[in-house]
Specification:
The protein is of the alpha+beta class. It has 17 helices and 8 strands.
């Protein structure tokens, strides 16, 4: 068993930008630590799983004025990345670094390859100096470096990963073996240090939302600003649920657009962290709850998010924001509204009945829509549960038991949707190839 403090340390961390390209940058930065003179590096080659490839293709990279994708993240990992920063690896990124990174890409000195046999979190980053390679591998978790080698000689290796007899289970593995009630019981041991850490995450994520709501910022697709404007013009009732939705929209808008601000992640995802935290922070403040009451509910949200993720996987064909973090928010909101365990279970099952099967089609601007939807539906599910309404009986993928329900979600994701990522990647690559052809034809037509 593990403590709440250990859980928070492993599963709830600050992250700068989308965690998939962030992990790519981290792997490259760590490999580069073994190179004395970075200027001598000739080429970067990064192999990634289908999920990392998909999620990093179209998402904005913080501090790059709109640059997107795993390739620029990889090069920035070389130029300015610091592995010691973890998932904030690009914290020191400057404009001149971005210009240099774009030149690397133009000169075709970086390649991103989708490994057809890898899923979940997997990154194999190789940097080449005169045909000699330094390699860093990340797998299982976005910051979990399992191997570093130079010219075929192993410099670092996690002996207990992935399939040795003395393998240490991850916290997420352990969560998956517990009952839901056992998972939530960890909150009984919350202390003031935990409260302070959780409330720091509230501060971070609300700051991102407020950035996304500002009139003077370019924040993704701008759904948060648009909903705020609609409410201000009285075209939509200014109700708490829509306030939750506008803030959740805005935080994800800004993050997906590449805002140079960190968020507190949950279960390896910044957007999960937005979904798991912001609705509870807003409702808690509106209802006059203390920091300790808000932190306790958010801890429940994080624990529930990781409990669902233990079944559907770290990265998945279904939208983890809607399914996992939405479940977390539903449970936490029930508690912050003074509901009990049975009502929290009802809220989670109702939320899952609503969002099961929502597809993850990569990290990009439209993720804000799914984050906002998850946050709003979590609030509605909690309100239903407090009135003892919701999906409680066995129907569809929902079971009378919360444990079987979450297991069913894992089966839908891991078995029923196992080819979804490859289909989505094909669609995205076909679109990219069409755009490249149109660009070339246009240059020829104007004498380029």
């Amino acid at each position: 068993m593990f403590t709440l403090k250990e859980f928070l340390e492993k599963e709830v961390k600050p992250a700068l930008g989308c965690t998939e390209p962030g992990a790519v940058a981290l792997a490259v930065a760590r490999a580069c630590q073994e190179i004395k003179v970075k200027e001598e590096i000739d080429y970067i080659e990064v192999e990634v799983s289908d999920s990392v490839y998909k999620n990093g293709m179209d998402v904005g990279i913080p501090g790059t004025d709109g640059a997107r994708g795993n390739a620029i993240a990889a090069v920035l990992g070389l130029i300015c990345g610091k592995a010691s920063y973890g998932l904030e690896v690009l914290r020191d990124c400057q404009k001149e670094d971005v210009l240099e990174a774009k030149k690397w890409i133009k000169d075709k000195r970086v390649s991103i390859i989708c490994h057809p046999e890898k899923s979940g979190v997997y990154i194999h980053a190789a940097v080449f100096v005169k045909k000699q390679a330094t390699i860093c591998i990340i797998e299982g978790d976005h910051s979990n470096i399992t191997m570093v080698s130079k010219n075929g000689k192993t410099i670092f290796e996690k002996k207990d990963f992935p399939n040795t007899k003395d393998k240490k289970e991850s916290i997420q593995d352990m969560i998956g073996k517990l009952s839901y009630r056992e998972v939530l019981s960890l909150v009984d041991d919350i202390d003031q240090d935990d409260v302070a850490y959780i409330m720091n995450g509230v501060k971070m994520n609300l700051k991102m939302a407020e950035y996304g709501l500002r009139d003077d910022t370019a924040a993704g697709a701008g759904f948060g600003k648009a909903l705020k404007k609609i409410m201000k013009e009285n075209k939509l009732e200014q109700e708490l649920g829509y306030l939750i939705k506008s803030y959740s929209f805005a935080a994800s808008d800004a993050r997906m657009g590449g805002a140079f601000l960190p968020v507190m992640s949950s279960a390896g995802s910044g957007n999960h962290g937005i979904t798991a935290i912001i609705p509870l922070a807003i409702v808690g403040r509106k209802k006059g709850r203390t920091d300790e009451e808000i932190a306790r509910a958010i801890a429940i949200s994080h624990l529930t998010t990781s409990y669902v993720k233990s079944k559907i996987g770290r990265l998945s064909p279904v939208c983890g924001c809607a399914v996992a973090a939405g479940s977390g928010a539903a449970a936490g909101l029930t508690y912050i509204l003074e509901g009990n365990y049975e009502q929290a279970v009802l809220a989670v099952k109702t939320l899952l009945a609503n969002t099961a099967g929502m597809v993850c089609d990569g990290a990009k601007e439209s993720c804000a829509l799914k984050v906002g939807t998850a946050a709003f539906e979590a609030y509605l599910s909690a309100l239903f549960a407090l009135d003892d309404k919701g999906i409680d009986s066995a129907q569809g993928v929902i079971d009378a038991s919360i444990e079987v329900t979450v297991n069913n979600m894992g089966r839908v994701n891991c078995i029923g949707m196992k080819n979804m990522d490859s289909v989505i990647i094909d669609i995205m690559e076909e679109r990219a190839e069409t755009a490249r052809k149109e660009y070339k034809e246009n240059r020829i037509s104007i004498g380029g």
